[in-house]
User: Fold this.
Amino acid sequence: MPRVSCAESGGNLVMYFVPNESRRTEVGERAFNWAAHIPLPAEDVDASMVDRHGVAHAGTLPPGSMRLDEESRLKVLMAANVPEYYAQVIAKTRNTYVQLIYTADQPAYHTGRIALIGDAGMVAPPFTGSGVFKGVTNVENLLEVLDDGVAPDEALRRWDRQQVDVGRRRAAAAARHACCVTEQ
Assistant:
């Protein structure tokens, strides 16, 4: 399935097949899902989260509640930034919805003997491998440092520096994506 990213907009798009309502997966029967991460200026968030009935939402606009003007704007943006075939698929989408996603870069991954693991430590833009994989990697790295035989407080300090560095590199890599389409 394709993954599209563009440096100019800083956004990402993934598309993939899923079983249809009857759990069918054959060509012509399966459904197609897509998710776009599109940076949104803070001053535009509140207006973007108002549904078709004028109700403001925090975090998620449920499927089918996105205002038609916002949905149209999204589809025009997609048409201008992705290959035509994928833009046509997106244009046919019904019940589009929105979920806000924030980037969080913590200055430290621990305080005292409390450690932040996975997305609790650093949340990068979607599609960068930062979810469960990051959490597992954080734990593995912490266990390695603890196995070095140093005191727990020193181990946490060493681990913390590693995780902050890795998190910042991951966020920088996500921000640098060149426009490309990769088939998976």
In short: DSSP finds five helices and ten strands in the chain.
